[in-house]
Amino acid sequence: MSFDTPDIGPPERRGSGRLPAWLEWVTSISALVVSVSSIVIAVHNGHNADKALQAQTYPYLDQDRSDATPDGRERLTIGFVNNGVGPAHEESFRIRAGGRYATSLDDLIAGAVGAADVQAARAALRPLTNTVPTRFIPANSSQFVFQTTRTEANGRWWDRLDDASKTWSLEVCYCSVFGDCWTRVDATPPKPVKACKRDAATEYSN
Predict the structure, then answer these.
(1) Is the pLDDT of residue 35 over 90?
(2) CA distance 191 to 170
(3) Which runs of consecutive H residues, i.e. helices, occur in 114-202?
(4) For the chain, domain boundaries
């Protein structure tokens, strides 16, 4: 009995499993580009999220200056109203009257009626005052600095103070909860500043 010898050819060559060098470089560079792009996108999205959050907490502090109430009463009011969407921290407030800064209500009254009549005028005016040195004002809220209502008894003092108030210049500096700050002089647009700086010698207080 004879057996046929199988025809065994040369062994099949198999690949080494390694990519060509140039393809490995392309793959590595592509992976790096994807990683860097992901980081850039994440940072950009985070920045946009921060801006969106800041926009949702943006304060806009207006000065509330009036000499009458909606129902027609004669009331002189100096204060603030926050027309923004976030709280405002009023950190500095100054009133320039007669070429200098008035640091108290008595200073303002003296400028209107004369130093000799300050005590008599203040007693007659019976003003309401907010003695807090700095104020935290929520969105869509207001706070007064001082107000006084005209009566028959104090009319002559009130009229002179009301006339003088039309020449006052109000300066305020306020910040958001994120520490972004602005200054405003009267009705001019808010001006961004790095921080609010209080000058004790010129700050207004009651």
Answers:
(1) no
(2) 14
(3) 118-125, 155-165
(4) 18-56, 61-193
